[in-house]
Amino acid sequence: MAISIDPLIYGLIFVGVVVLIEGLYLTMFGRSISLNKRVNRRLEMLEKGDRREEVMEKLRKEMRQHMNARGIPLYAILADRAQKAAIAFTPQQLIMIMAALSGVAFVGLTATTETALLIRGGVSVAIGVGGVYFWVNSKANKRISMIEEQLPDAIELMVRSLRVGHPFSSAIQIVAKEVADPLATEFGVIADESAYGRDVGEALKDMAERIDMQDLRFLAVAVTIQQQSGGNLAEILAGLSKVIRARFRLFRRVKAITAEAQWSGKFLSAFPIVALIAINLLDPTYYDEVIDHPWFIPAGLVVGGFLTANLFVMRMLVNIKV
After folding, report:
1. Which PANTHER family does this chain map to (predicted)?
2. Taking Cα atoms as reference points, which of 89, 82, 70 lies closest to residue 29?
C-alpha cells in the first residue's frame, strides 16, 4: 500500500490560503492594522487628513458590524471571533473571501491531485471556510492577549494623569495617544465618543461587552460607581490595576502549569497519525495483509474518534478559569 501525498497537498494549500488572506488584509487596510506598528491605526487615519468624526464612525462600524450580522446563515460561527478580532472586512466580504478561497483551493486540488470531483469540492470548501476561521481565530486570540497585557499599564497611565490634575476624559485621550494598538484605538474611540456627548462609563461598558473581557468590566464598573457615588477615582483605579496585574500573573502561572498537559494531549493524539505516516514511508506494504479486512476501516474510525475525544477531554481538564 503506497502512501498518498494528498494530505500533504491539502495542508500546503491550507497554509497558502491563510497566507493569501493575510496578504489581502494588509493590502486593503495597511500595515497599521497588523497591531505591530508604533503609530496606532486611529492616529494614522487622522494623520492622513480624515476628520475626527469620520474616523470615529468608521471604527465604530468595524467594531460592531460582525455582531450585527449574526443572522446571516452559517456566519454566526465566525461572528463572535471576528468581533473580538475587530476584523475590518465586512461580513459580506468575509463570506465572499471564503467562496473565493474555496475556488482557489479547488483549482489547486484539481491541478495537483487526482481525487474524485465530490471529494475535491468538499475539501475545497473545508479549506476555504476553515482557513478563514483559523485566520480570524488567531487574530482574535492575539488581539485579546495584547489587550490583557496592555490594560494594567493603560490604567496606571490614567492614574498618573488623574493625580496631576487631568480630568478622566483627558486621561482617556492620553492613553489613546501614548499606548500601542489594539488598546489605543479602542480608547481613542471612547475618547471621541465622550467628546461628542456619550457617557464614558457607558462607552467603557460597551467595549467590555464587545470584547468580552472581565478586566474591562471591572474598569467600567469602577468608573460608573465613581460617577454615581463620588470618591477618589485615581485610588480606585490604582487598586484595580494591582488586582488586574495579580490576575494576569496568576493566569500566566496557570497557563505555564497546564502547558505540559495541553501539549501531552496534542502529542498523544498526533503520535498515532505520525506513526502511521512513518510506517507507510518506511514499509509501504506493512498493512497489505489487513487493509482488506472488514473491520479495518471501522477500527480506524473508532481510533480517530478516540484521538479527537482525547483533545477535547485534555482541554476540559486544563481549562481553569482565573
Report:
1. INTEGRAL MEMBRANE PROTEIN-RELATED (PTHR35007), PILUS ASSEMBLY PROTEIN (PTHR35007:SF1)
2. 89
- What is the spatial distance between Cα 126 and Cα 102, in angstroms, rounded to a whole number? 8
pLDDT digits 0-9 by tens, 6-50: 667 777 888 888 888 888 888 877 766 666 555 677 777 777 767
Nearest to 98 by CA among 115, 75, 67: 75
Cα distances from 206 to residues 57, 118, 145, 199, 220, in angstroms, run 15, 45, 19, 11, 9
- Amino acid at residue number 283: D
Beta strands in 147-293 (DSSP E): none
What are the boundaries of each domain within the chain? 148-245, 246-322
pLDDT digits (tens, 9 = 90+) for 89-137: 888 888 888 888 888 888 888 887 777 778 788 888 888 888 888 888 8
pTM: 0.74
User: Cα separation of 56 and 42, whole Å?
Assistant: 8
**Fold (topology level) of 148-245:** Receptor-associated Protein (1.20.81)
Q: Could you tell me which residues come within 8 angstroms of residue 80 by beta carbon, excluding any fewer than 6 positions away?
A: 66, 67
Residue with cell 490576575: 247
